[in-house]
Q: What sequence folds into this?
């Protein structure tokens, strides 16, 4: 029985002998790989869409240029999505390697690293989308009580492209949330003790 | 061995006989109870601080009143913190009951309910803090490129109280993140199979 590592060294892991269990493990790995590839692709797309977005308008014969650095929330969105894309490329490579090896063994230290990384990335991407969505809402609708004007009336094309970037980043953050649940499962099942079982109610 | 519930009914759970393991379980429960009480108290404080915050200023002989409903992000913050405080009061009660009973038994359906609830609350509170912090940053620093003025120069007392509310909500969201890890541990250890162990590298 291993519970909180009591009596078991940190590198000690369970071995599953049943073919059914191996097949289930393989299915979990495939879902993980697909999600990591989705995050890699859409994270890059979100970062590029927002970072390359500019629009020039002439207002009272003065040229004004809208760019993503005008809003801190968009800078945060670009950095967060570039980071999560880079992180996912490394994790996807690890997934492929472990699938090629066909191994269902899992070490606790590696499981902790993946769990921690996924947690940080999940909360970071959710925070980035929330902050960017809030800025986008002000840009689209304005905040009349505070004299914050709608800028999407002026920079329509700029706002649309930012909207596409935020939509892409939203899919990235949802995928990261699902992945963080998968990595929590992969880690904490290593701490289970099931030699004896007993039925219990709620 | 139980992995993804194979061969074990959903209500079947492990029993830990060792006194050491029971003591560890008790310690985890105490941390959980403390965190749920912190969230209950600070979640209520954040909601009350922001929801009761108003300031009236006379600008060019016109009376202007700042209130939290002027910013959607603050409305979201109040709702999210009120919800998480209510949720935590129920969960704290459950913690106390299970500690009084002294039971370390845990059912899978209940573990899934707690895990799902904690995940939703953790991501919701993080998103609420991120959106409110973004609005507060614009209010404090302005966004000159977009002609969004600093309103904290006008409504200083209002901004300070909102700041205290956001700080309180930040502690709530960090506590919820830690709690969501604890409930993930409580759930997924039930899926562990540790009859045979073997050392593995990274």
A:
């Amino acid at each position: 029985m291993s519970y909180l590592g009591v009596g078991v060294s940190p590198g000690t892991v369970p071995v599953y002998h049943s073919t059914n269990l191996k097949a289930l493990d393989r299915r979990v790995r495939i879902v993980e790989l697909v999600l990591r590839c989705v995050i890699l692709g859409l994270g890059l797309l979100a970062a590029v869409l927002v970072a390359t977005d500019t629009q020039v308008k002439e207002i009272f014969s003065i040229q004004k240029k809208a760019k993503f650095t005008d809003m801190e929330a968009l800078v945060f969105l670009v950095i967060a999505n570039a980071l999560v894309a880079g992180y996912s490329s490394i994790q996807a490579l690890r997934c492929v390697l472990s699938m090629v090896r066909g191994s269902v063994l899992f070490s606790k230290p590696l499981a902790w690293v993946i769990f921690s990384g996924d947690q940080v990335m999940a909360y970071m991407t959710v925070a980035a989308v929330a902050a960017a969505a809030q800025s986008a809402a002000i840009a689209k609708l304005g905040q009349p009580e505070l004299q914050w004007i709608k800028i999407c009336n002026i920079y329509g094309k700029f706002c649309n492209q930012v909207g596409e970037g935020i939509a892409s980043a939203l899919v990235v953050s949802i995928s990261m949330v699902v992945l963080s649940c998968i990595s929590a499962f992969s880690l904490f099942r290593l701490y289970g003790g099931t030699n004896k079982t007993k039925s219990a109610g709620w």
